[in-house]
Design goal:
The complex is a heterodimer of chains A (376) and B (366). Chain A is mostly helical and 376 residues long. Chain A is 60% helix and 1% strand. The two termini of chain A are 12 Å apart. With 366 residues, chain B is α/β, with parallel strands linked by helices. In chain B, the strands form four sheets. In chain B, strands 12, 13, 14, 15, 16 and 17 form a six-stranded mixed β-sheet that branches. A five-stranded parallel β-sheet of chain B has the order 9-8-7-10-11, with helices on both faces. Chain B has eight helices and 17 strands. In chain B, β3 and β4 form a beta hairpin. Chain B is globular and about 70 Å long. Classes of the chains: A mainly alpha (376), B alpha/beta (366). Chains A and B meet through α1, α2, α4 and α8 of A and α2, β3 and β4 of B.
Chain lengths: 376, 366
């Protein structure tokens, strides 16, 4: 293990640090109870109601169209206002579904309840990526190999150069543009992550077969997702098919951009560490904790912000304890921070402006060769 | 035939309609309005609670539209979240089938160490929705052939037999029936008044013999438990009867032994409430693991994933350190130990991460 630590810690101290984190984890898990159960069940109910109502509000906005109706309330401003409210809340419900509910359920955070429906083995989400494939790319690859170059596919998503440790190539010149496009279609970018296109063209027979399997699963999920938002709900509105399809598209894009911003703030802001394969050889659990801490960044924000980010504004806590129910992250965060302070370890946190700002600057700067050396 | 194709057509249509709720179904949204109308699971609303004795309570449940009528004597699974954790237990239905109000009842006795039973008896409020399963079990009366029944019950073992008796009374075709019921005291008899009333109303048909095993204020006297002499006295024609017995393990054991001795075990039907479970004998004790139908020996310190791999299996897995949950399996019975915390996981239905759990006695995973 050869992570260059910002402070010299000996083997014993590192293990002690790990032990203290273990204690926080066990204490929190032991205290889970009916309050937590109520939280997730209420949230799921709220989210589903919000999704349904906002879709009806989008329909209802049509009743204000001045060129179709003549009642006193019919006006363009009323139409845009209602439509805007509908689209906004549809986006919010999709964000809640993807982030605070599904991301966390699929991490197994709620498996302790033994609920037959709210558990990682049967849950499916409102997202282009089939749940089981996403669990593989995200839970296995990203959370085990966090920020390890050429191992963690989330380092740049195979598209961006997000650290000077990645070799520059001419195609990176346009990466601010790729990043913009990725943000808009983020859901689909994540959806195709598990597919290894290179292997499809030059792989062995088995690799090609595997590609085919993954592709068919993705296609089945994608068809359902598209049918829902771009065929069936629009059809319900009859002549306003395009209007409803466009509203759903805007809600999906708002969700994509928001999740992209929050997720990019998790590992790409300034001062986040990256690692090489040899750094993680013979890693103990305490070392793994250290790597998660150094490789993640938090965003400061209140309770509503936390819920809207799926508590990924506590990215550090999430990476230390991926299967701890997310509603507990705000509670353990001060303890983790105090622990880091005690050991002199950095705890990367900042405002959304700071974290996303440095991320964006980095993406611009790294589109050219070179770049500042990063902590590693 | 047209009926079947109509059904598949209906199913196809429904799954198409469900596309509108991807990745859920329309039923998940109906649940927001009324959990009893859903088709993706089965829940029941507690519409009434009634105390039978000081520690037994009858819950009247209104099952959702996925329900199908039970046969008298059958049981259902009932789920309850306690402290946020979902527990499942099996209870016999104590009401007769096809009640007019569409409801069923279960009668639960609070056991001293029963977390779930105590919760159901003391804490469950009217209006609560509980997940339930469909009626199951072979502890039922034959549908056609007329038989002379002998019921041997004890304590809350009365519940499935109560459903049978009520069914006889409702239909009005009770055959000549002998019923031996064991309880500590007369005031401990669940449904005591109703049983007495049947005995008074049907003196030639329903022969009710309550047997109280304790004198007031004294300890349990095993002399009064089931014995051949007792049976001979209360039901001399037991050789001509079909027997249904339900109660604690000890009662069933002695009843089973007796009828086997006399070569009448094929005429004995029993219902056990608790499946015998493997008891933990000490720390880090392994056991036999039944995994996907294969039985494998495991020690108490090696993660199950390793054990399975060493025996030539290749279960799905990922990080091998308890993070990614790729290797999650469901515990069907027995217990395992979480090697990180030392916690024993023994509740059936728990999710087990096999990469960081070892066997703790015999267990079964799928």
């Amino acid at each position: 293990m050869s992570i260059q630590l910002p402070v010299p810690l000996n083997k014993h101290e590192i293990e002690e640090f790990g032990q203290e984190l273990d204690d926080i984890y066990e204490e929190t898990i032991a205290s889970l109870g009916s309050k937590d159960e109520r939280y997730i069940k209420r949230l799921i109910k709220t989210q589903r109601s919000m999704a349904l109502i906002s879709r009806f509000v989008i329909f209802a906005s049509l009743a204000f169209l001045p060129n179709w109706f003549t009642h006193t309330l019919a006006s363009w401003s009323m139409f845009y206002l209602t439509a805007g409210v509908g689209v906004f809340f549809l986006a919010v419900s999709k964000i809640l579904e993807n982030m605070e509910i599904s991301h966390n359920v699929l991490h197994g955070q709620w498996d302790w309840m033994r609920d037959p429906e709210i558990n990682s083995t049967v849950w499916e989400w409102d997202h282009a990526s089939p749940a089981d494939q996403w669990k593989k790319t995200h839970n296995v690859v990203h959370h085990t190999w966090t920020n390890v170059l050429y191992k963690d596919h989330d380092v740049g998503y195979g598209l961006l150069r997000v650290t000077s440790e990645q070799k520059w190539a001419p195609r990176y010149i346009l990466q601010p543009l790729y990043n913009f496009i990725l943000a808009i279609f983020f859901e689909w970018g994540i959806g195709i992550q598990e597919m290894n296109w290179k292997k499809f063209f030059v792989g062995t027979k088995e690799q090609k077969e595997h590609f085919g399997f993954v592709f068919r699963r993705f296609r089945a999920k994608a068809v359902r997702q598209i049918m829902k938002d771009y065929v069936l709900w629009p059809l319900l509105s009859g002549p306003f098919f395009l209007y409803v399809a466009a509203s759903n598209a805007i809600a999906n894009i708002l969700r994509n951009i928001w999740t992209n911003i929050i997720i990019f703030c998790g590992h790409f802001p300034e001062d986040v560490y990256v690692f090489r394969k040899q750094d993680v050889e013979g890693e103990t659990r305490a070392h793994w904790y250290l790597r998660q801490l150094l490789g993640s960044a938090n965003i400061k924000g209140g309770r509503l912000f936390s819920i809207m980010t799926g508590n990924l504004n506590h990215q550090i806590e999430h990476h230390l304890f991926p299967d701890m129910p997310s509603n507990r992250y705000p509670q353990v965060a001060p303890r983790v921070k105090a622990l880091c302070d005690r050991y002199g370890l950095p705890y990367n946190t900042g405002s959304l402006i700071r974290q996303y700002g440095t991320t964006t600057l980095k993406i611009w700067r790294l589109s050219f060769p070179g770049g500042d050396t990063v902590p590693k | 035939m047209p009926d079947k194709s109509l059904r598949t057509l209906k199913q196809k249509l429904m799954s198409f309609v469900d596309l509108i709720a991807t990745p859920l179904t329309v039923s998940h949204y109906i649940e927001l309005v009324n959990p009893l109308w859903v088709s993706h699971n089965l829940q029941a609303q507690v519409v009434d609670v009634w105390d039978e004795t000081k520690n037994a309570r009858t819950l009247t449940l209104k099952p959702g539209r996925n329900w199908r009528t039970h046969r008298a004597g059958q049981h259902i699974r009932v789920g309850v979240p306690i402290e946020g954790k979902h527990f499942t237990r099996t209870y016999s239905i104590s009401s007769e089938p096809e009640r007019r109000d569409g409801c069923i009842t279960i009668t639960v006795k609070a056991l001293d160490d029963g977390r779930m039973s105590t919760h159901l008896v003391r804490d469950v409020k009217k209006g609560t929705y509980l997940p339930i399963g469909l009626p199951q079990g072979e502890f039922v009366l034959p549908q056609a052939a007329p038989t002379l029944p002998l019921f041997i019950t004890a304590g809350s073992g009365i519940t499935p037999v109560m459903s049978m008796l009520r069914n006889y009374v409702r239909v009005g075709n009770i055959p000549d029936t002998v019923h031996m019921h064991y309880a500590p005291h007369s005031y401990d008899v669940i449904f005591g008044k109703e049983l007495k009333r049947y005995a008074e109303q049907l003196p030639n048909l329903y022969h009710y013999h309550p047997i109280f095993t304790r004198e007031l204020g004294s300890e349990l006297s095993s002399k009064k438990h089931f014995s051949p002499e007792q049976l001979e006295k209360r039901c001399p024609d037991w050789r001509e009867r079909e027997v249904w017995a339900c109660g604690p393990q000890s009662l069933l054991d002695s009843v089973e032994a007796f009828f086997k001795e006399n070569g009448r075990e094929q005429h004995l039907h029993t219902e056990r409430f608790l499946a015998p479970t493997a008891k933990l004998t000490g720390d880090e004790q392994g056991g036999q693991v039944n995994f996907d139908g294969k039985t494998i020996d495991a020690d108490g310190i090696t993660p199950l994933l390793r054990v399975f791999e060493d025996s030539g299996l290749n279960p799905k897995h990922g990080c091998r350190m308890g993070i990614c949950r790729s290797c999650d399996r469901t515990l069907k019975s027995g217990s395992v130990r979480d090697l990180r915390t030392g916690t024993i996981i023994e509740e059936p239905g728990s999710v087990v991460q096999i990469c960081i759990c070892a066997a703790a006695g015999n267990c079964e995973l799928n």
